[in-house]
Specification:
This protein is an alpha+beta fold. Helix content is about 50%, strand content about 25%. A hairpin with a 3-residue loop joins strand 2 and strand 3. The radius of gyration is 21 Å and the shape is elongated.
Length: about 160
């Protein structure tokens, strides 16, 4: 099974920091408002401190665990992916069910020359399968390999 590029840990860390960076000032504002209110039972900084601990754990630990448990493999007739820290998810995408393929890259991923292969399948539930953390060239090569299989299957 293939592993993701290790740089994806940095990408997930940055994205996590940006996400939590929005919530942390809001929580701090609530703490300050509660501090200056007439509430005697309030512990100053409790919510901000609690959120900060959760935030640091999420930013420093979760990306490494996600990386550790993410694997994928392009097999003869399907794409197999396994992921999940607490809840392991094994996904098998039959190549003949693929509708179209995307190679996606946001600003942060582009900075690390990474991309995501997005596989759109036929169906109504869980129709998109994403393989993150691929070097851009590898994502394009994987997309082209799958596209060639689909073209041969259609003939």
């Amino acid at each position: 099974m293939q592993i993701l590029d290790p740089a994806v840990i940095k990408v997930w860390t940055i994205k996590g920091a940006l996400s939590w960076g929005i919530l942390l000032p809001v929580c701090t504002t609530v703490d300050v408002i509660l501090f200056f209110s007439d509430n005697d039972t309030f512990l100053p900084g409790l919510w901000t401190g609690l959120l900060l601990v959760i935030c640091l754990a999420w930013i420093l630990i979760i990306p490494k665990l996600r990386y550790r448990y993410w694997r994928y493999e392009l097999r003869d007739e399907d794409l197999y992916a396994i992921r999940g820290i607490w809840n392991r998810v094994q996904t098998i995408v039959p190549l003949r069910r693929i509708q179209h393929l995307d190679v996606a890259q946001d600003l942060i991923e582009g900075n690390y020359d990474l991309a995501r292969l997005v596989v759109h399948t036929a169906g109504t539930r869980s129709t998109d399968v994403v393989v993150p953390g691929l070097p851009y060239d590898e994502a394009v090569q994987l997309r082209d390999t799958v596209r060639e299989f689909i073209a041969e299957y259609m003939d």
